């Protein structure tokens, strides 16, 4: 059994303070049904950043922001020459999102800082809390943009001219966000870190089903996103005979039916989702001239991710009957395995605290995987009710959130004192 | 062979003037690809009404408007005690509509007035040009609202609180439209007419395929519109296993596949269209919590319209696997047969002019069918290229538009001199 880590700091994690802050954040962008709609770089995002900075004031953290708006709050260590440990998550939400996804990771690190401060502990290495810009991708795709740009996987200028559904440029929304806190010093993209650690709700049902409190996350399944555009020809719904129509809705259905076959998996490992469908002109009495729909395909096995994903375009071409089809891949990320340094630190901390835990891969992708070019990375999962996420009904127990934060304190003390 | 009708008036129909006016109207709400987006009661609709009134000025017509904004321009007859003959169509378009649907019928009647005026002809009965409000139903459903309310089939107050996609109330848009021409005298809804006649492009491929210039329209197939709402539960596209999902997109697909079976028709007589699909939350990485889609089902046979339409709700309930479904019928109209008085007047005029013609039902619905409670009604069809309509590519030959107007002059002289 592992050594019980820094018991005084762990004991000073406040379940109540963490929960109250979670609920205060949930008021920013609150939507009916206890949900949250806090799009990245929106007015709500700006308010959430300001609230975080307000809470951080007593902790005397050094704030910095990078060119894509990733916000860093550094707690100094005893040796300023050492690479910091980085920990955090994101503050943006899905349009119909919940109160826990993302924001928990940010507030858990803040709570860990509170506990360390109250215990009078200074680690050797600095610890940086990070709040990543645009993890969700709901307003501007792709998601995890902040961490990808920070780690050098994508360039910021690729994204500046993206527009949201109201025609607002990402570059303009970013400038507005940065201008809201003009006092924060800028830092460049990227740097060397000792490790990156991200607490998060599981967003799946496994921890709850198995009665475990902590998920020791071993890696993340791969994801591929596609946009399929079916182009037909509009016609009058009453006058145009069925024969001879080029109905984009009907051909989109044929493609999705074929995709369901391609993605069928008796082991229930593959994840295949058509979550967005946009029809044009989208009026009841006109045959659709075009349909655009999204494919979100994920698999933990690289070979399966490649085989099935690469088959999509040709299959769509065979499935259409009357229209033409184009398939574009917008985003892909291969499956990743987290570094044993971080995975073991999480597992040891959970075990040392006597919490129930299990090793598991993540079904969702997270900023943690995009930090891999910069340092060893890992995650801590806590259960969420029925696995519901990206939904106003998302819920996690206060005690589970606190337990995850206790594990975080233990793991940070381990990683930041090496 | 029928007597050639009033040759001097027919000869004075100007193909050029009619075409130029069509093209001038097409500039109001013009969209790329030669299309038109002129929603009912919009700024564009107001401009179109004003342009019509400007052209009508020399003809000394008596303008009147009813409570739902239907615009009447009366050409006086020799006997003011006789019921007028009414003729016209609508000036609104589909969102991605063409330059001919609706507006042709209005401008054809105006051109007929020009020809009668130039020929110095006064009919016994008055003739009223009508421009109906909201035939298309694209901004506020259902379509044919103006004629339905005028004929007493629906009440105006049922519709006043409808809102368009920008939240604008129909009542407010209507008030703005009426306020734009405050000088026009009001008239009540409804009245007794001697006949109603509506020129229109066919919106289907039959006249072109058979090489005929004039469609003598015998009636209109029936229509039923439904909205299907599938309610599931959103979840994270990466984390939620496929088993246990309540994916509204997948269940909507199951329903539409089952509807395709129900609507299958080897004779290609039934018309079945899913033209609108709205997904929520409509993000690529969230399982859809709900899908709402439209059904437009039409059939010329009353029994088939009832049998298949009535089967939809139960079939949808059987087709869903993981979600719940609700089916609402928004609109229905039974098949109608036009009155021999008007149908024969059209046929005789076409024959008298030596134009090629065929008797045919209408695939689309039109204001003509909703005028049936008030008087004998009928329609004149002219060909449109490839049958394309509700589409920016909609096109009709200037010569065909003029031929339809010549038939209109002949039929109006017949009907208005009885």
Q: Descriptors for this entry?
A:
homodimer; 418 residues; alpha+beta; Aminopeptidase; Alpha-Beta Plaits; 9-stranded mixed sheet; 5-stranded antiparallel sheet; 12 helices; 33% helix
The CATH homologous superfamily of the largest domain in chain A is termed: Zn peptidases
Instruction: Name the chain pair with the biggest interface and residue counts per chain.
Output: A-B, 71 and 70 residues
CATH top level label of the largest domain in chain A = Alpha Beta
What general form of chain A does the structure show? globular
Flag low-confidence runs of chain A: none
Give a short account of the largest sheet of chain A: 9 strands, mixed
The proportion of residues forming helix of chain A, as a percent range, comes to 25-40%
The succession of helices and strands of chain A, N to C, reads: HHEEHEEEHEHHEHEEHEEEHEEHEHEH
Structural overview:
Two copies of one chain form a homodimer. By secondary structure, chain A is of the alpha+beta class. Chain A folds into two domains: 7-220 and 335-416, Aminopeptidase (3-Layer(aba) Sandwich), CATH 3.40.630; 222-333, Alpha-Beta Plaits (2-Layer Sandwich), CATH 3.30.70. Chain A is built from twelve helices and 16 strands. Chain A has helices spanning 7-11, 15-26, 43-56, 103-118, 145-150, 170-180, 206-210, 248-263, 302-319, 340-352, 367-370, 398-416, and strands spanning 30-31, 35-36, 62-65, 71-75, 85-90, 127-132, 195-201, 214-220, 222-231, 271-273, 277-280, 290-299, 324-333, 336-337, 357-362, 377-382. In chain A, strands 3, 4, 5, 6, 7, 8, 14, 15 and 16 form a nine-stranded mixed beta sheet that branches. In chain A, strands 9, 10, 11, 12 and 13 form a five-stranded antiparallel beta sheet that branches. The first copy, chain A, has a two-stranded antiparallel ribbon with strand order 1-2. The model of chain A has no long low-confidence stretch (mean pLDDT 95). Chains A and B meet through α8, β10, β11 and β12 of A and α8, β10, β11 and β12 of B.
